[in-house]
Specification:
By secondary structure, the chain is an alpha+beta fold. Helix content is 28%, strand content 14%. The chain has helices spanning 20-31, 44-50; strands spanning 11-15, 35-39.
Length: 69
Amino acid sequence: MTFAALSPDRIAVVTGGAKGIGLAACLKFAELGMRVVIVDLPSDDLTRATERSEWSGFCASFNSGMDID
């Protein structure tokens, strides 16, 4: 799939999107006008990623202190 095939009416869900390649993908999708959902573990990286000036619109953070066995 090329970036040209991605339209602004789509939603990108990126796991591991708080830093590195995941964050780069989030920024590219946002640049293309797509809605972006960043999924990652709670961390300072995630906080910084969601506070970037590139994002517009609604931002929400949901996390749980539950352990998964």
